[in-house]
UniProtKB/TrEMBL annotation:
This is Bifunctional inhibitor/plant lipid transfer protein/seed storage helical domain-containing protein. Keywords: Lipid-binding, Signal, Transport. InterPro entries: Bifun_inhib/LTP/seed_sf (IPR036312), Bifunc_inhib/LTP/seed_store (IPR016140), Plant_nsLTP (IPR000528). One of its GO terms (molecular function) is lipid binding.
Length: 127
């Protein structure tokens, strides 16, 4: 009986440590914030091409977003960042000027296009 109780407690504890799909990626995550910071010089227009640091951070996020819900959340985070003027220090106040540069990251960093940073793009349509 003690062994069964121990197994139940261990399984419950282990399930609490597991990351549920769709909850693994949050806009407030340090990795998400750092990717915005690493890519800011390119998306702001200060650099002609994204740095290797930017591309590596972007690829890391893309690889982390494995499920449909995680990819949708990644899209929502990008939309949130562009709509709230995050990472815009020293640049135009209109975040729409950055959308084409953000949208070019997948191609420039060697990843397939997943979604547009344009707020008109419906993140819920991502598969």
């Amino acid at each position: 009986m003690a062994r069964i109780l121990f197994l139940v407690v261990a399984l419950v504890a282990a399930s609490d440590l597991m990351v549920q799909p769709g909850q693994a990626l949050k806009c407030s995550d340090l990795e998400v914030q750092q990717t915005g910071t690493d890519c800011n010089p390119y998306t702001r227009g200060d650099e002609a091409e994204p740095s290797s640091k930017c591309c590596n951070a972007y690829k890391s996020l893309r690889l982390r977003a494995k499920t449909r819900e995680e990819r949708r959340q990644f899209c929502f985070c990008v939309h949130e960042a562009t709509s709230q003027n995050r990472f815009l220090r020293g640049s135009a106040t209109n975040p729409a000027t950055r959308i084409p540069r953000i949208d070019s990251l997948p191609e420039k960093c060697g990843f397939p296009f997943l979604f547009s940073a344009d707020p008109k793009f419906d993140c819920n349509k991502i598969n």
